[in-house]
Amino acid sequence: MDVEIVAIGNELLLGETVDTNSPYAARRLAEIGARLSRVTVVGDDRARMRRALEEARDRVRWVITTGGLGPTRDDLTRPVVAEVFGLPLEIDAGILADVEERFRRFGYETMPASNRCQAEVPRGARVIPNTHGSAPGLIVEGRGCTFFVLPGVPAEMRALLEEGVLPVLAAANGEKAPVVRSLVVHTAGIGESALAEQLDEVLAHAEPIEVAYLPHLGMVDVRLTLAGLPRDEADRKLSDLAEKVLRLTTPYAYGTDDQTLPRAIGEALQGRGWRLAVAESMTSGELGAEITSVPGSSAWFLGGVLAYANEVKEALLGVPRDTLERHGAVSEETCRAMLAGVRRALSAEVGCAITGIAGPAGGSAEKPVGRVWIGVETPDGAQVRKLDSPGDRDEVRRRATVAALALLWRRLRPEGEPR
Amino acid sequence: MDVEIVAIGNELLLGETVDTNSPYAARRLAEIGARLSRVTVVGDDRARMRRALEEARDRVRWVITTGGLGPTRDDLTRPVVAEVFGLPLEIDAGILADVEERFRRFGYETMPASNRCQAEVPRGARVIPNTHGSAPGLIVEGRGCTFFVLPGVPAEMRALLEEGVLPVLAAANGEKAPVVRSLVVHTAGIGESALAEQLDEVLAHAEPIEVAYLPHLGMVDVRLTLAGLPRDEADRKLSDLAEKVLRLTTPYAYGTDDQTLPRAIGEALQGRGWRLAVAESMTSGELGAEITSVPGSSAWFLGGVLAYANEVKEALLGVPRDTLERHGAVSEETCRAMLAGVRRALSAEVGCAITGIAGPAGGSAEKPVGRVWIGVETPDGAQVRKLDSPGDRDEVRRRATVAALALLWRRLRPEGEPR
After folding, report:
1. N or C terminus of chain A with fewer C-beta within 10 Å?
2. What is the pLDDT of residues B172-198, one digit of tens each?
């Protein structure tokens, strides 16, 4: 069951508004076994709208339009949809009464004449009532195609999708309908290609499950998608395959779907009864902020030191001046001293440290921009790693934070478990 | 000058990724006088991609594609674009060398074979080098149309758009073309309605300049937009109006366009010869990370203490146990003690502190979730403020960070200057 969306509005094509309606609809459609096959974004232009709507009408059985239902001159969806189906526009008495009632409720004596056009609908259209705003949705049928005409305001669009569109599509699709289900395995600290090679054998036999690698700054998500089976069966197959993927990508995989790397680290710390402290130079709080994004992190996170200036590394972390002078702030030796210092200063079982050169200035031939040392120290000992990160200041900092989290996970994760 | 975008990727049609590339491109295109006339989103499906690309090719002179350039099986843009122009694929020696070099730099001995296809380009394509990732962009011409083929990762897409697409389109468009220009005045610490009242009079006479208020978590941007004039003239009119807006919104406005609140604070600190230290409980690094997003911040930022646990507030900031027991960690008294403590511990002229309850747990009738104390202390004295923030954990933390920055700005900004 293919569905297309035509999103209408100059604000979308000027970049003033991001179309979040289509991704929302996409997720909800997949869950009832429908597939979003194309999204077309056009402006408030009669000819361009008509062309896009006619093309969609001729390609698929089901079309959702969003936007262009307001009371102003640039709101053209109603008349253009009427044209596309060769239907006249007529005043719908029910809608007119609702719109007038809405104005009275907000304390206006009379409704502006411009709002009257909101009650005009293509002949024969069914109305999807809108309890969140003044523009109702419409269902218009003809020429082997059904249009669901929805407003563009996200809260209204979502409500009408749930109440007036998904039930119709689900009924048309039937209960045992094949659906599209996805499951994501999250990894950190391994590259896309290395990951793909590690998984090649098992995923070569995974069909009809589709596999996609989604890299984002030092992390790679492996998305497994299965279309064409009823929901229960699809979920069972996906989670079987996910188990294999998790096992093969140990120690880089840290969970599936909603799991986050900081939460996985927190669970591992709680399992061991250890508490964490951080010492951040270059990232100056990014690591601490990521870790405490987890609700309840106070159970296993103590705090840390933002040792941006060398004086702070000395005063609060006890990094010896001699170490800073001989090896520099960005060095294995300083990283190790920060680790020992932050564990001591905060009485923490586990320390994590980052020091590096984010740029754009501060690099040298010997230590270029992007050079980073990260480290983790537990009661079992310290481990430090050197990174040479690509990208600009933000990217260098972000990659360092992710690499530190990935190292924490590898050091703390329960032994012998695949995740 | 009409431009279309074809955004490619199953993740877009499954709703897992929101297409932020197109809105970004839309804004940048408008600024050089080009118009985004349609966006089409299709999945990683050879036939559907081909159809969408051929339709775009036949409608407009300029097409930008995003996505589908990675090394894996589902990355089909290069071969499909070649088909659309009837061109064979050939290995580009320059790209191949770059990709191999990239792998060496990251410490891999050999490049996985799958990455070799990233060097395949339609015959005659020009390469847009990609310094942010392994997939370069391409310019492919034929049949009266030019395709700019860009990667889907936003950082890479934006860089290649700036370096390889906009210069070509601007040159084709000519210098005197009417453009859409915008200028943004940034404010923090004042609400949208209060701001609108303050600006009402001057903006009532501002036509044909359009005014939009863009609120986002404690900050409000005032966007001034002027369409239909050549670039120079538009910019002159906009900056005249911006001067008035800046003057009327003192002390909340901190700059225009690319200015950021942390950078404005840094410039103010440098003007006074003072250095800053932060003490963060609830936000645990968000403030420090924001401040050091500014290149060169080491000139005026020393570091700080993430005092998440009360033990750390005592041990590193010298907050008296008695204060914590009598007033609690989220209190004016603790906030003041954190300010004094962080200035002392880091020998800083200026301290900034945040303590609060981000939730979801930890609230009480007396101190609900969202209760936050922020403070700033300079050699001229301390100032603390109580906030009761709406929203979830992320929003409470984010609003606290912005409020702390806004208070820093109001306390530090040069006297008598409008910004």
Report:
1. N
2. 988 777 888 889 999 999 888 888 888
Prior bond to A208 cis, omega within 30?
yes
Range of the domain at A83: 2-173
Distance CA B225, CA B207 (A): 10
Q: Would you call A32 helix, strand, or coil by DSSP? A: coil
Q: Which residues, numbered 238 to 277 in chain B, qualify as contacts with chain A under a Cβ-Cβ cut-off of 8 Å?
A: none
Find the helix or strand (DSSP H, E) in which B373 lies: strand B371-378
How close does chain A come to B384, measured CA to CA in Å? Answer: 22
* Mutual angle of helices B231-248 and B192-204, in 10-degree steps: 120
pLDDT digits (tens, 9 = 90+) for B134-150: 788 999 999 899 999 99
Judge whether A236 lies within some domain. yes
Contact between B9 and B19 under an 8 Å Cβ cutoff? The reply is no
- Within an 8 Å CB–CB cutoff, is residue A347 touching chain B? yes
Task: Assess if residue A374 is contained within a domain.
Answer: yes
Residue with tokens 């030796």: A333
At A151, give phi and psi (nearest 5°): -70, 165
Strands of the B145-150 sheet, one edge to the other: A126-128, A137-142, A145-150, A62-66, A2-8, A35-42, B35-42, B2-8, B62-66, B145-150, B137-142, B126-128
Q: Considering chain A, what percentage of its residues have pLDDT values greater than 70?
A: 98
In chain A, residues with a C-beta closer than 8 Å to the C-beta of B179 are: none
Using a CB–CB cutoff of 8 Å, tell me whether B305 touches chain A: yes
Q: Are B342 and B382 in contact (CB under 8 A)?
A: no
Chain B contact present for A314, CB below 8 A: no
Q: Closest approach of chain B CAs to the CA of A407, in angstroms?
A: 17
Per-residue confidence (pLDDT) for residue B225, from 0 to 100:
87
| Distance to chain B for A121, nearest Cα, Å | 26
Q: How many residues does chain A have?
A: 419
Which residues of chain A have a CB within 8 Å of the CB of B115?
A: 193
Q: Are residues B267 and B250 in the same domain?
A: no
Q: How far apart are CA B119 and CA B78, in angstroms?
A: 10
Mean pLDDT over B215-225 rounds to 86
Residues A135 and A60 in one domain: yes
Single pTM value for the model: 0.78
Contact of B44 with B10, CB cutoff 8 Å: yes
- The confidence score (pLDDT) of residue B419 equals 44
Number of structural domains chain A divides into = 3
ipTM: 0.78
Quick check: B64 and B8 in contact, CB under 8 A?
A: no
Residue A63, burial from CB neighbour count under 10 angstroms (0-12, 13-18, 19+): buried
Say which residues have a Cβ less than 8 Å from residue A77's Cβ, sequence separation at least 6.
A8, A49, A65, A67, A68, A69, A149
Domain co-membership, B156 together with B234: no
Q: What is the rounded average pLDDT of the residues A258-283?
A: 97
B91-123 tens-digit pLDDT: 998 888 887 887 777 666 677 777 777 788 999
| Whether residue B265 sits in one domain with residue B205 | no
Residue A156 shares a structural domain with residue A244: no
Q: How far is B116 from chain A (nearest CA, A)?
A: 11
Cross-strand partners of A395 = none
Residue A310 confidence (pLDDT) above 80: yes
User: For the segment A114-142, what is each residue's pLDDT rounded down to a tens digit?
Assistant: 777 778 899 999 999 887 777 889 999 99
A314: tokens are 């000395």
Omega of the bond prior to B208 within 30 degrees of 0, cis?
yes
Q: Does A318 touch chain B (CB under 8 A)?
A: no
- Residue A344: pLDDT over 90: yes
Q: What is the mean pLDDT of chain B?
A: 92
- CATH code of B230's domain: 3.30.70.2860
